[in-house]
Design goal:
about 120 residues; 5 helices; about 65% helix; elongated
Length: about 120
């Protein structure tokens, strides 16, 4: 598989260039260093690929295995820094949900504009 084919399979999402200095992230980094920051972004990327951008809490063990991190550490990162929201079944990132809504809106507007040009 060529490099361009791999890029086509990756899904885009935006994030703030100053995320590393957000207060919640600084608290995470003070406890887990850059490893925690990397795990945070791996979780965000996982959410980006998940259905409705939410991840089932019952699958955290598998996610920990996938990320090569202890389940206890992953749960602390997910649940102890107010970086994610959760209910009984899922956890998610409000920031990611907002960004994906903006992306969807832009995509729909672009599609509408393209359709008008072809009419």
């Amino acid at each position: 598989m060529s490099k361009s084919q791999k890029l086509k399979e990756a899904y885009y999402f935006s994030h703030d260039s100053n995320a590393k200095t957000d207060d919640k992230i600084l608290n995470l980094r003070s406890d887990f260093g850059w490893e925690g920051y990397g795990i945070f972004w791996a979780v965000i990327e996982t959410l980006r690929d998940a259905t409705e951008f939410k991840f089932p809490k019952k699958s955290i063990t598998g996610l920990a295995i996938n990320l090569s991190v202890k389940k206890e550490k992953l749960e602390k990162i997910i649940f102890n820094y107010n970086l994610f929201k959760s209910d009984e079944e899922f956890f998610w990132s409000d920031s990611l949900l907002m960004r994906m809504d903006i992306k969807k809106e832009k995509s729909e507007k672009s599609k509408e504009a393209a359709n008008k040009r072809w009419e």
